[in-house]
């Protein structure tokens, strides 16, 4: 059994609990950074403590999976807030060389985000000034990128000049200077890949668009990779919180005799070519990146595959559901054919193939229409993996990692931990995000008029109680056979996510 040392992006369940499940399903020895060393939202992790812990644990390890954002800045949110110099960061990056010197057999898989710039005002996970200037800072990045590509119109030039006058100089400088430091750190990691210190590197684009800071930096980083003859070896694609699981899947798949061959099926033909929210390319392209990054093969036909990834992609209509059409109605739209998908899924399952469902139709929640179909067709406990949370890439990476863990077992063997993780996904992605969250959020004013979805104040225990009651009602309705109790909490004192602990 290989020892895999795991440095997660941050302390949230998606980055800390999900990899733990994936490791246990596959039977791998995954050693996670102790929680006491991890941060909490805007409070960075204990960077020096994590370094000392990592040195000790990697001395006899086979693989190190490292989030460079944790290693350098203390987590994903601190990566957007820090004031570390390039010299300090360079010293931390160089530490990875020491690990390789002390254990030459250690493989190091790293991921390092291209910093995001959300298209909205709001300082929840950003610097305080993003509350007032966030959208204009975002637009400035879009306009700079279009100007560089000679795609900017005269109207947009005027908008860029107006933003330069409206946003205080010190605000824009702070934002751009931090991006410059982070960008140079990304280049430094590419250099470590060239030197053989890193064995594999993913540079995901966090919350990106077609134009802006992230795609501009991606092009420059790709050029730097080309200068080191690594143009084809560094992976650039949309993602963030799922990437640790992706690299864990890669480590698991490399242990087997051959990588699992995965066939991709879609509930919507047109949806395969749709660009999801918060991403810069069609989902059909991202799926291929995600599979290859995880160390999977891509099957040309379903018959030759070890596993099937059934993707419920976004469509123009489904993306409207996130904001414009949020109601209690369950929509069956014309561009999605669940009847045909379910028939094909039955065929895959009857062949004994592993089958996972990536529910990417609606950002940050399950597609209630799809879930009702799977429920009525009695397939919820037949499939092997499911996810439907946050961005399309977050969902894809989680399901592909779960599929990989299942494929690592002997044919026909079903892990009880895998079934637990599947139920966990249903509770969180469908139960909480798709059914309970909106209802409880609407009633927050009855608990306390001073709280809101992004800040529960000191009322988190009361909100948590209401969420658990509603989630228990969901469990009793859809999963009466599951008698397992659970605890929960709101990790960053907000409604956006929930941490569920199954008993």
Low-confidence stretches: none
SSE order, one letter for each helix or strand: EHEHEHHEHHHEHEHEHEEHHEHEHHHHEE
Note the main sheet. 6 strands, parallel
Strand portion, in percent?
Answer: 5-15%
The count of strands amounts to 13
* Biggest sheet, spatial arrangement of strands: 2-1-3-4-5-6
Question: What structural category do the secondary elements indicate?
Answer: alpha/beta
Mean pLDDT: 95
Q: End-to-end distance, in Å?
A: 27 Å
Radius of gyration computed on alpha carbons? 22 Å
What does this structure look like?
By secondary structure, the protein is an alpha/beta fold. The chain is 48% helix and 12% strand. It contains 17 helices and 13 strands. It has helices spanning 13-26, 47-58, 68-73, 86-102, 130-148, 154-166, 169-194, 213-227, 243-255, 283-293, 316-321, 338-350, 368-376, 392-407, 416-442, 444-447, 460-478; strands at residues 3-7, 29-32, 63-67, 107-111, 200-205, 235-238, 261-266, 297-298, 307-312, 354-359, 385-387, 486-489, 499-502. The strands form three sheets. A six-stranded parallel sheet has the order 2-1-3-4-5-6, with helices on both faces. The protein starts with a strand and ends with a strand. The model has no long low-confidence stretch (mean pLDDT 95).
């Amino acid at each position: 059994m290989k020892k895999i040392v795991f440095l997660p992006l941050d302390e949230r369940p998606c980055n800390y609990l999900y990899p733990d499940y994936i490791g246990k399903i596959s039977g791998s020895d995954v050693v996670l950074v102790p929680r006491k060393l991890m941060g909490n939202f805007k409070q960075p992790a204990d960077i020096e403590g994590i370094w000392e812990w990592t040195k000790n644990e990697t001395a006899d390890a086979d693989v190190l999976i490292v989030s460079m954002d944790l290693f350098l800045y203390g987590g994903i949110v601190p990566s957007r807030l820090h004031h570390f110099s390039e010299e300090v960061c360079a010293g931390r990056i160089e530490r990875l060389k020491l690990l390789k010197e002390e254990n030459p057999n250690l493989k190091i898989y790293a991921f390092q985000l291209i910093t995001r710039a959300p298209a909205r005002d709001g300082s929840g996970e950003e610097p305080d000034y993003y509350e007032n200037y966030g959208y204009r800072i975002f637009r400035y990045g879009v306009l700079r990128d279009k100007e560089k590509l000679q795609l900017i119109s005269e109207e947009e030039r005027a908008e860029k000049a107006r933003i330069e006058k409206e946003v205080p100089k010190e605000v824009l400088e702070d934002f751009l200077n931090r991006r410059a430091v982070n960008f140079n750190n990304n280049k430094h990691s590419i250099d470590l890949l060239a030197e053989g210190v890193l064995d594999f590197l993913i540079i995901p684009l966090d919350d990106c668009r077609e134009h802006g800071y992230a795609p501009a930096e991606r092009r420059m980083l790709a050029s730097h990779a080309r200068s080191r003859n690594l143009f084809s070896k560094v992976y650039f694609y949309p993602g963030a919180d799922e990437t640790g699981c992706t690299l864990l899947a890669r480590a698991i798949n490399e242990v087997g005799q051959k990588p699992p061959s995965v066939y991709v099926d879609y509930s919507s033909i047109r949806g395969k070519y749709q660009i999801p929210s918060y991403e810069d390319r069609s989902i059909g392209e991202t799926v291929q990146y995600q599979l290859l990054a995880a160390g999977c093969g891509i099957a040309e036909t379903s018959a030759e595959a070890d596993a099937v990834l059934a993707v419920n992609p976004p469509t123009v209509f489904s993306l409207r559901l996130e904001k414009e059409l949020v109601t209690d109605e369950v929509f069956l739209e014309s561009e999605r054919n669940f009847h045909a998908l379910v028939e094909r899924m039955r065929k895959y399952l009857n062949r004994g193939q592993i089958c996972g469902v990536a529910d990417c139709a609606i950002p940050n929640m399950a597609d209630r229409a799809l879930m009702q179909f799977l429920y009525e067709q009695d397939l919820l406990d037949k499939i092997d993996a499911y996810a439907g949370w946050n961005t399309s890439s977050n969902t894809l990476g989680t399901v592909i990692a779960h599929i990989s863990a299942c494929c690592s077992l002997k044919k026909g063997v079903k892990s009880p931990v895998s079934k637990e993780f599947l139920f966990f996904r249903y509770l969180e992605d469908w139960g909480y995000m798709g059914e309970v969250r909106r209802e409880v959020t609407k009633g927050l004013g009855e608990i306390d008029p001073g709280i809101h979805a992004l800040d529960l104040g000191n009322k988190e225990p009361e909100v948590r109680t209401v969420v658990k009651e509603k989630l228990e009602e969901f469990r009793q309705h859809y999963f009466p056979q599951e008698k397992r109790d659970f605890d929960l909490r709101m990790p960053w004192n907000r409604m956006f996510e929930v941490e569920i602990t199954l008993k």
